[in-house]
Design a protein that fits this description.
This protein is α/β, with parallel strands linked by helices. The chain has a single domain, classed as Alpha-Beta Barrel (TIM Barrel). It is built from nine helices and eight strands.
């Protein structure tokens, strides 16, 4: 079964009050919500709105401003994970997004790779104990995140193998990986056991599914057939002049067709 969550950082921007985006997501027919950072948000209000609407918080970000590209950052990353776990517990969130930070100029790439492994290994026991999954996110460096360290699924899966924890998986962002490497269905189906979360937007433009080159009917069907039981989170900017509710119609229709 396909379950669609909505990133309310990017969706329902028509509503100035952030918490009001949660009931709007419920009315639109979404199955969950998520957001990026938590420290500037009213978690009590978010938790109350989610309980009222019965929408889970499907993911939020570990706020680790120094990134993960050095062995010496492991203690800082553990502290950042501890804070994020407390914030996640407050709203019942079970997935925490981890980003690496930008590649260091003139730095040794192998050492930076090893730094990510060290940080995730250090934080993994905390996540395991809390029943939470850390999801490592590769991003595209061609359009949106020039300079970011981790931009391929191949290196991401290598890192997961080296960390070797059931509480550390990949956030497979269909948009970012289409920009960087394509081969979406083959990659996600062959590595589905290592994938803990999905993000979705179309290419080009990072707008709603159905506006670009990705065959979403086939991608969602492949995810569904793989046995994946988590969420596919819609993390896109609605096309200019398009209201969020209108932008959701195509992908919600595909979900309903697949789920029967």
């Amino acid at each position: 079964m396909i379950k669609l969550s909505g990133c309310i950082e990017m969706l329902f921007g028509e509503l100035a009050e952030f918490v009001e985006r949660i009931p709007a997501a419920a009315r639109a027919g979404l199955d969950g919500i998520e957001y990026w950072g938590y420290s500037a948000k009213d978690l009590d209000a978010i938790g109350a709105a989610c309980r009222k609407t019965k929408l889970p918080v499907t993911a939020m970000v570990v706020e680790a401003p120094e990134g993960m590209l050095d062995f010496h950052l492991a203690d800082q990353f553990v502290e950042a994970t501890q804070r994020a776990l407390a914030a996640a517990e407050a709203v019942g969130c079970k997935k925490l997004i981890c980003t690496t930070g930008n590649e260091r100029p003139n730095g040794d790439r192998k050492l930076q790779h090893a730094g990510i492994v060290a940080c995730l290994r250090a934080a993994a026991p905390l996540a395991e104990a809390a029943g939470v999954t850390l999801v490592l996110e590769p991003l595209n460096t061609l359009v949106d995140h020039v300079g970011y360290f981790l931009d391929t699924s191949r290196e991401s899966f290598q890192i997961l193998e080296q960390v070797d924890s059931p509480a550390v998986k990949l956030l497979y962002d269909v948009y970012h990986m289409q920009v960087m490497e394509g081969n979406l269905i083959s990659t996600l189906t062959s590595h589905i056991d290592q994938i803990g979360h999905f993000h979705a937007a179309d290419v080009p433009g990072r707008h709603e599914p159905g506006t670009g080159e990705i065959n979403w009917a086939n991608v969602l069907a492949a995810i569904n057939d793989s046995g994946y039981d988590g969420y596919v989170a819609l993390e896109y900017s609605p096309s200019p002049g398009t209201a969020t509710v209108e932008s959701l119609k195509h992908i919600l229709q595909l979900r309903d067709q697949i789920n029967g």
